[in-house]
Design a protein that fits this description.
Length: 444
């Protein structure tokens, strides 16, 4: 796993071509980079490139803009980026500069970012449609309006300004929803690293450990394999597991607690997203095991619906039905199954959906519904399956043994030609598998 994966230049070229084919010969596509963000005073957050720019070029620097001009004789793929600057590079590290960017990223041409103002109006001229993410970056929105207005002022001289402004997401999100072979290699690597990280935390677990100590076990593995957290790791011991986006990670675990860890590695921009719930002392209590088994059954029911041609939503409906059935059987809900499903009474214990698209963003782009209907699954779609149960510590309507238990089991799934493949399948999932993995540390 220490050999670095590289995305072939032809993969980026293929995506740009697909996007230009979708946009059409009279369009122009504009994709600005992410910004460097101040964390406090003169320190910055670690820079992360805009996912769309990463997807189309792999170019890693801020202050850059990709412009695609389909059918342009002097080159269709143009990048504006920072110039080389020995003084700045001595502080912040090397830059590509326009002269090196062309060859390094397989572009047709590159210009200094400072020339954007002079060059872009000329590129807009004669194009009828502009594709761009409106409303994400107010400053850039205003600049773009200014450039279009400069073309409009030249109408008497025969200039043709664009007259249609279209949301880039409609085209690009659909492209990004379907992962190509190269992307799946990166996603498998992110998943493999995340599996090792969760195993490390389970092996290290001891009653009395702080949540952040377990977080350190997880994130040390991410860094060891050249990855970083894809999102803020969630480590919730005891009833903290019932807080869906728990962030504090500073409580001490107590003997008899379950610990919920929701953490995934990001490798070269691609995210994994795994959740496991395990007993800090290595042994599930009967009540904990009953609910853990039920979440496992719900996940299996959702997984059975992960096949091409089935609605995306079918997995969620299957999980909800399994959970509701089990909650009735265990006495946490009362009444008839149909009634409980219809009035949504299960939502007290299960408040979220059963998954989300996964890719360059943890909650990746792509429509879940088309014309009001749940879209059908197709090969190349990647998503999470993550049912859970959360019983509030102060829920007096249920027996004391259930109170304060929070459980979620989450895996990453890619749809294939026939069924699906679970990218995170190597990680212990059932109560028996988890106890066996945690038992290894005692033997050691």
């Amino acid at each position: 796993m220490h050999t670095a994966l590289t995305m072939p230049a032809k993969a980026y070229a293929r995506r740009r071509k697909q996007l230009m084919d979708m946009a059409g010969g009279d369009a122009i596509v504009i994709v600005p980079s992410a910004h460097e963000l101040i964390r406090s005073r003169d320190t910055h957050y670690p820079f992360r490139q805009d996912s769309d720019l990463s997807y189309l070029t792999g170019f890693p620097e801020p202050d850059s803009v990709l412009v695609l001009v389909p059918g342009r004789k002097h080159g269709e793929t143009l990048l504006f980026c920072r110039e080389r600057d020995a003084e700045r590079e001595a502080w912040d590290g090397p830059r590509y500069g326009p002269e090196n960017a062309v060859e390094a990223f397989g572009l047709d041409d590159a210009y200094p970012i400072t020339d954007l103002d002079d060059i872009l109006p000329g590129l807009l001229e004669g194009r009828t449609r502009v594709y761009y993410h409106f409303g994400r970056d107010t400053d850039f929105d205003l600049k773009l309006i200014g450039w279009v207005n400069r073309v409009r002022e030249m109408v008497r001289q025969g200039a043709q300004p664009p007259h249609e402004f279209l949301v880039l997401g409609h085209l690009l999100d659909e492209l990004r929803l379907f992962k190509d072979r190269d992307e799946l290699r990166f996603m498998q690597r992110a998943a493999d690293i995340s599996v090792l990280a969760h195993e490390a935390a389970m092996r290290a677990a001891r009653p009395g450990m702080r949540e952040y100590e377990l977080q350190a076990e997880v994130e040390a593995v991410f860094r060891r394999f050249d990855a970083e957290p894809a999102y803020g790791s969630i480590v919730g011991a005891g009833s903290n597991a019932c807080v869906l986006h728990y962030r504090a990670n500073n409580a001490a675990s107590r003997d008899g607690d379950l610990v919920l860890i929701d953490a995934g590695a990001e490798y070269r921009g691609y995210a994994a997203d795994i959740t496991r719930t395990f007993p800090i002392n290595g042994r599930f209590s009967p009540a904990q095991r009953a609910l853990h088994d039920l979440v496992g059954a719900a996940q299996a029911a959702a997984l059975a619906q992960a096949r091409p041609g089935l609605p995306y939503e079918a997995g969620h409906l299957a999980a909800v039905e399994t959970l509701t059935e089990g909650l009735l059987r265990l006495g946490l809900l009362k009444g008839k199954l149909e009634r409980n499903l219809a009035d949504g009474s299960y939502r007290r214990f299960y408040r979220h959906k059963t998954g989300h698209w996964l890719g360059l963003d943890v909650h990746d782009v792509g429509e879940y519904r088309i014309d009001g209907e749940s879209r059908l699954l197709e090969p190349g779609m990647v998503f999470t399956i993550e049912p859970g149960l959360y019983v509030s510590a102060d829920d007096t309507t249920v027996e004391p043994k259930w109170r304060g238990i929070g459980i979620r089991t989450e895996d990453d799934v890619v749809i294939g030609k026939e069924g699906c493949e679970v990218l995170t399948d190597k990680l212990a999932r059932s109560a028996d598998e988890i106890e066996a993995l945690m038992g290894q540390r005692r033997a050691a």
